[in-house]
Amino acid sequence: MIRAIEKQNVVDEVYDQIKSHIITSKWKPGDKIPSENELCQMFNVSRISVRSAIQKLRGLGIITTHHGKGSFVSPSVNEVILNGFFPIMNLSEKEFVDMMEFRETIEFKCIDLAVQRADEQDIQEIGKALQKMLANKDDYVKYSVHDYEFHFNIVKASKNDLFIKLMQVVKEPFSYYLEELNRVFGVSEESLQGHIDQYEAIRTRDAQKAKELIEFGMQENREKIHQLKSKKS
Fold it and tell me: Are 121 and 194 in contact (CB under 8 A)?
């Protein structure tokens, strides 16, 4: 039976319940799954939670979505299940740690400078990137483009030309890092709220709060990556 979800990590709960229905063949290969509105009512969760869960399942090849028709259980779902039902993270734990150390060194310093030097235009640019993220929360590729833009605009607000050039140099690996996280783990409500809170912290000149929020998000992702690697090993 479908049960209402009350746990904090609702995206994972929705994902697990849909996955369970597919594994147990309640929803068979080729079957159309309930619409987003129906899933929202069944699970008693928001639409973004349902979309994020569906996005994770699409990334695994478990579900296919056809515009105007809806989402369907993939015809090849049984093969995916036999292969472990785990997403492929094309980002090693070492690469993640390297990026985390880079962010803690460069981005954190830029936050300190941004809260001191940012003018109203800088704050608006960070806010515009955030609004683009929110507008594209159902498309992890576009969301990731604006995710990088959000962090780059914080660096620009530092007014330090060397930091700005450095961020441009690492744009490709930084963007890839963000896109991989958003592809595998989905764009969750927690991630969205975290960016909103980061923006507010910078707008109110609270550098410590902004850095704590980023540190918390990175640690959570590091634990998720470690768990994912452990399951596949």
Answer: no
Cα 60 versus chain centre, distance: 15
Q: Are strands 63-66 and 70-73 parallel, antiparallel or unpaired?
A: antiparallel
Tens-digit pLDDT profile for residues 127-181: 999 999 999 987 888 999 999 999 999 999 999 999 999 999 999 999 999 988 8
Q: Please report where in the chains the tokens 């460069």 appear, as a residue.
A: 106
Indicate the DSSP class of residue 73: E
Per residue in 19-70, pLDDT tens?
888 877 788 889 999 999 999 999 998 888 898 888 888 877 788 888 788 8
Query: From the CB of residue 54, how many other CB atoms can be counted at a distance below 10 Å?
Result: 23
Instruction: Give Cα separations from 56 to 52, 112, 185 (angstroms).
Output: 6, 35, 7
Please report, as a single letter, which amino acid is at residue 112. D
> Could you tell me where the beta strands, DSSP code E, fall in the chain?
63-66, 70-73
Element (H, E) at 66: strand 63-66
